[in-house]
From TrEMBL:
GO terms for molecular function: DNA binding. This is Transcriptional regulator. The keyword Secreted does not apply. Residues 24-43 bind DNA. The lineage of its organism: Bacteria, Bacillati, Bacillota, Bacilli, Bacillales. It holds the Pfam family TetR_N. The gene is yuxN. Keywords: DNA-binding, Repressor. Residues 1-61 form the HTH tetR-type domain. It comes from Lederbergia lenta (Bacillus lentus). It comes from the Bacteria. InterPro entries: Homeodomain-like_sf, HTH-type_Tx_Regulator, HTH_TetR.
Length: 277
């Protein structure tokens, strides 16, 4: 586990300098001070390493934003907290954020594209839940257009400070985007993206497969976990997936037990969505 993380950390340094395509496994192993054999014990290929890095970054990014949205009780602060969390996270992980934006613009790797689309859909789901909570029926006809406007803000402004090295005032930027979003929600009158159009380019998630994947991940974390409260919570939540018996309040309590653990954030996020909390 430690060696795997070392490879990811060192490879990220090289990818930031050279990009994915121009960095070889040989260069990665030399930078890590390990043999190629040691590399292939952790990753079957460079592509697998790249996908692992994407998962590592995007899982943290998505779960942090989802958790912030669901746990900000004051609607007056919700949009601000959403934007602030996004750009603060981009700032913290600027090297990898730069790589992702550059690679998306030029990548023809199907696995990479599918992986990014998957996380893009998860982010759309978070944004949809937020704007429906904030604006209700007022944005029923234009909610998908509003989602794409918000995603446009995220992409455009992140590129502004990632690639132009401009001074970043996250507080001011978040306030500005709150104002812009509220104006759009209030004044958009001509919808373009309908629910029918969304269904055409979004494939449904197989819930049975999703459940199996969550259980598989939980079993691995249960083996690794040393903290007794988190470990027992994972065991009980896994049992709930297999044989539902607990009431929602208990499930929420168990999720709170694991939500702040760095190795359980993705499981917590997946379960909150599975149980529709």
């Amino acid at each position: 586990m430690i060696k795997k993380q070392l490879i990811m950390d060192k490879a990220l340094e090289l990818f930031a300098q050279r990009g994915f395509e121009s960095t070889s496994v040989q260069q990665i192993t030399e930078h890590c001070g390990i043999s190629k054999g040691a590399f292939y014990l952790s990753f079957k290929s460079k592509d697998e390493l790249i996908l692992a890095l994407i998962d590592h970054f995007m899982m943290q990014f998505t779960t942090n934003i989802d958790y912030k949205v669901k746990n900000t009780k004051d609607n007056e602060k919700l949009l601000y907290e959403f934007f602030y969390t996004i750009f603060h996270s981009f700032h913290q992980h600027s090297d990898f954020a730069k790589i992702l934006i550059k690679e998306q613009a030029q990548s023809f790797n199907e696995e990479f594209i599918l992986k990014m689309r998957y996380y893009d859909r998860l982010m759309e789901k978070v944004i949809l839940s937020m704007i429906e909570r904030l604006y209700g029926e007022e944005i029923k006809q234009i909610k998908y257009d509003l989602i794409y406007c918000i995603k446009g803000f995220m992409k455009t402004y992140s590129e502004l400070f990632l690639f132009y090295n401009l001074p970043l005032d996250v507080d001011l930027l978040s306030q500005s985007l709150v104002e812009k979003t509220n104006l759009l929600a209030k004044h958009i009158t001509i919808p373009f993206i309908s629910s029918e159009l969304v269904e055409l380019f979004q494939q449904p998630i197989n819930e049975d497969l999703k459940k199996e994947q969550i259980i598989e991940t939980m079993e691995q974390k249960i083996k690794e976990m040393e903290e007794p409260i988190e470990k027992e919570s994972l065991i009980l939540l896994k049992q709930e997936l297999l044989e539902p018996t607990l009431n929602p309040a208990i499930i929420k309590g168990l999720l709170e037990n694991i939500s702040s653990h760095p190795h359980c954030k993705w499981i917590s996020y997946s379960l909150r969505n599975y149980f529709e909390f």
